[in-house]
Amino acid sequence: MTALPIIDSPSPQANTASGRRAAMPPRHLADLDPAGRRAAVAELGEREFRAGQLSAHYFGRLVRDPAAMTDLPASSRDRLAAAMLPPLLTPVRELACDDGATRKALWRLHDGSLVESVLMGYPDRVTVCISSQAGCGMACPFCATGQAGLTRNLSTAEIVDQVVSLAAVAASGAIPGSPPRLSHVVFMGMGEPLANYPRVISAVRRLTDPAPDGLGLSQRHITVSTVGLVPAIRRLTAEELSVTLALSLHAPDDELRDELVPVNQRWKVAEVLDAAWAYAEQTGRRVSIEYAMIRDVNDQPWRADLLGELLSGRLAHVNLIPLNPTPGSRWDASPKPVEREFVRRLRAAGVPTTVRDTRGREIDGACGQLAASQVAE
């Protein structure tokens, strides 16, 4: 059985693949709640209301350059910014496709780790897909990130800073045909979000806290994905948040899911779905069932029928994902006729089903591909 990372480590540090402890980044304003920010500013010998001014610049104006913070005393701008807004993400590469509507960013963290984020513009919204870990410990064989292994958890601020950075790109008007304000966030980038539970939940609260304490996004516009860490799903249910839960199922039967999603060896399909239905009942939010369509692996008609039986009458929606194959992988996307038949059978069972809009194939769109290509250079 594949070893899995601890769901909630008492330390903000995570074990690296080599067994060494990974040093986390310097403290950042986004790591702290409003009271913590005021205390941190007071420790610097500044008046506490400066914390609110810094928050307004970072979350409200999407600014981190101290020269632009003209409401702060010139004598303390640089010191406050250095202590409360240290650089966390260094841009390494940015690729664009879909006439500029899709942009993938590769970031280097303070310890050299690489993570990815994707900004996607639509006529009615702008969405960012963000990473919660450097690498991933779930070992799903068809996923580039899963094959790279886990380096470490990201801090709350490293997660939030991806969103703030790309929100600034959207606000600049760089996404053609889309609103200038980022409105949706999906935790579907590198990593298993619920394996970095405390920092992901803190990040959700920073993203949804009203300005100037946070970015002011709607909880209903936040999606948190998981491969099925049952204790963490039950813990999320008790948070009384209204985020969307996305369950990466990928197979309706335990025999295949044991192979595709190794965590299934610990929590079987029935137990994972029970936890998901409890979340749906508590929140009134339908669960998004993520299902990567893999040629001749999980796309058989009988599996569509079995999935339909499991989901029929439940507060759920199936999001079929045409697999974005990684270089050298034996896994490939299902043919379109097979995909259409899978959709037909699910809908015939009364299960709402859509096929995910394919974005970013030209720019190493699958999670982990861009980071892997950078390391290989």
Describe what this molecule looks like in 3D.
With about 375 residues, this protein is an alpha/beta fold. The chain has two domains: about 30-85, Orthogonal Bundle (DNA polymerase, domain 1); about 90-375, Aldolase class I (TIM Barrel, Alpha-Beta Barrel). About 35% of the residues lie in helices and about 20% in strands. It has helices spanning about 35-45, 50-60, 75-85, 145-150, 155-170, 195-210, 230-235, 255-260, 270-285, 300-310, 335-350, 370-375; strands spanning about 90-95, 100-110, 115-120, 125-130, 135, 150-155, 185, 220-225, 245-250, 285-295, 315-320, 355. Strands 1-2-3-4-7-8-9-10-11-12 form a ten-stranded mixed sheet. It has a two-stranded antiparallel ribbon with strand order 5-6. Helix 7 (about 230-235) runs parallel beside helix 9 (about 270-285) and helix 10 (about 300-310) packs parallel to helix 11. The longest helix is centred in the middle third of the chain and has 16 residues, at about 155-170. The two termini are about 35 Å apart. It comes from Planosporangium mesophilum. It holds the Pfam family Radical_SAM. Specifically methylates position 2 of adenine 2503 in 23S rRNA and position 2 of adenine 37 in tRNAs.
